[in-house]
């Protein structure tokens, strides 16, 4: 665990922009307590602190120090179903929902259910149209913070997730995980109709259309339909006499 001996302020201060973090051991005994000024940048939701262990990012010193304690804690709570260990009973309880399929949080509007209340809150914004996270650079809004963080990287060019095999970098952990399948040969996305497997979910989605006959991309000139947007763009060159299609013409 990181040396925290330089933290020596046990007092709890309560006033604007001040946060006090208290970390505990497994018996809930205080390890140390420290007061931080929770300074944020112009872009309130851009992560400024990165965990060197798992690369998760945070917006304040408070958040990252609490998070790092999760790594330092011994994982003593075991899932009897799959054998995985967790740092607390609350984390274990959430994990078990994966096995039971239980989704206790229900949307009152459409009836869809979720394993966590936070997922329900984000889902409900689909119905309300609420997008509370706005990009200060271009004004685009998003339903949750993670989407905003990913979007901001399109402005900054930041790619914090690196492949340890080839060194290629990605803007999201999801893209990194998808990329790794190139090296491992894993095909995690399976067609329930014919059993074919794919390295990317997007490839599976396109494949399933071969079963359903769905062609969601339509040419506004001749009304012909296609499986993918790339097929539609290739088709439009017929109308533009071999020139790259310009949607404004």
TrEMBL record:
Entry GO MF terms: DNA-binding transcription factor activity, RNA polymerase II-specific; RNA polymerase II cis-regulatory region sequence-specific DNA binding; zinc ion binding
UniProt-listed PROSITE patterns: ZINC_FINGER_C2H2_1, ZINC_FINGER_C2H2_2
Keywords: DNA-binding, Metal-binding, Nucleus, Repeat, Zinc, Zinc-finger
Signal peptide: none
Subcellular location: Nucleus
An annotated GO cellular component: nucleus
Pfam families with a match to the protein in the record: zf-C2H2, zf-met
InterPro entries: Znf_C2H2_sf, Znf_C2H2_type
Domain of life: Eukaryota
UniProt keyword Chloroplast, yes or no: no
Chief place where the protein resides: nucleus
Protein name from the UniProt record: Zinc finger protein 239-like
Record organism: Octopus sinensis (East Asian common octopus)
């Amino acid at each position: 665990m990181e040396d925290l001996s330089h933290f020596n302020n046990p007092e709890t201060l309560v006033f604007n922009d001040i946060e006090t973090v208290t970390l505990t051991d497994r018996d809930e005994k205080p390890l140390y307590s420290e007061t931080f000024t929770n300074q944020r940048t112009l872009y309130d939701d851009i992560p400024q602190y990165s965990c060197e262990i798992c690369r998760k990012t945070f917006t304040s010193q408070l958040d990252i120090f609490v998070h790092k304690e999760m790594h330092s804690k011994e994982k003593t709570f075991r899932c009897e179903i799959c054998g995985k260990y967790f740092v607390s009973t609350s984390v274990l309880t959430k994990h078990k929902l994966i096995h039971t399929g239980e989704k206790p949080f229900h949307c009152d509007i459409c009836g869809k259910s979720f394993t966590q209340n936070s997922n329900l809150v984000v889902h409900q914004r689909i119905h309300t149209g609420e997008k509370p996270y706005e990009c200060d650079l271009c004004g685009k809004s998003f339903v949750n913070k993670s989407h905003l963080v990913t979007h901001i990287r399109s402005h900054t060019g930041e790619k914090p997730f690196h492949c340890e095999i080839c060194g290629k970098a990605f803007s999201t952990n999801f893209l990194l995980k998808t990329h790794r399948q190139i090296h491992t040969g894993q095909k995690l996305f399976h067609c329930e109709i014919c059993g074919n497997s794919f390295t990317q979910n997007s490839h599976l989605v396109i494949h399933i259309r071969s079963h359903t006959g769905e062609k969601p991309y339509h040419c506004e000139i001749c009304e012909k339909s296609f499986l993918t947007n790339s097929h539609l763009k290739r088709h439009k060159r017929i109308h533009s006499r071999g020139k790259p299609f310009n949607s404004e013409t």
